[in-house]
Design goal:
The protein has about 280 residues and is mostly beta strands. It has helices spanning about 40-45, 215-220, 225-230; strands at about 5-10, 25-30, 50-55, 65-75, 80-85, 95-100, 110-120, 120-125, 130-135, 140, 150-155, 165-170, 180-190, 205-210, 220-225, 240-250, 250-255, 260-265. The strands form 4 sheets. Strands 10, 11, 13, 14, 16, 17 and 18 form a 7-stranded mixed β-sheet that branches.
Amino acid sequence: MATSNKKIKKAGNSSLSAGVHDYDAPEVVGVDVNDPEGQVPIELITKGLEVIVKRWENFPDKPPRKDRLRVAWEFAGTKTWVFDELIYPVPPERMFIKIDPGLLTEDGVAYVSYEVWLEDINVIHSAKRKLTIDSAPVDLLEPEFPSADGGYLNCSTDNPPLWEGVRVKVPPDPDFARGDVLIVHWDGYKSLNGSGPPIANTYKKIRKTIVTQEELDKGVEVLIEPFVPHIEPMIDNASALARYSLERNGQIKRRSKVGLVRIDRIIPGEWDVCGPP
């Protein structure tokens, strides 16, 4: 399908809470739906994005009915219509709309949304999906999991027990300085290698300011808690991914590689799951 790049000045508030919307915000392939900041993976910045628009209710299925779909990209005060077409015959269950990498050349916050003009007359809007574009280099060591044994967290995990939280350690780096902020991200998965979609509501972000010389020398630890919802859904053959960014003077300067830890809460020899006493 053809796309257009007509630009108009953005009007009104672009926050996720602005206005009343009939459709949920669209998803973006490769961007964690649970991340409220919508961090765009660095590899997608040069490849471009695909916005997923799900088939709306009361879609056109009989001639001469045609609906009009428009997909908007908002960045730095400008709205770009990246897609604007009449839809017929029956639209697929999911439509993939391309966001050209030329729109991702500057770091900052963008919003993507869509609207459907039923029979090209009555318009229904979606909520906006926030996306954070950050091209900072990925050159920091991956985070560590001090309580893991052989890369696993399980019913025998101690210091602390799994249901009291998971320790994530940012190793020291000679470039770190007091006053720097480390931003740690955590997501759970129903696979052993962090593949597939993240488990809903397991996402957590922690901001930790480096304040002591000991933290500079030995690294910084944060605790992922509470057990529900950030850990409890990972039961058997599950895993979690963690990563972090270095923020200095309000700007992301560097990012880490991704750390993986496997999670198994099945009690050995039993058909039972360990958890809080």
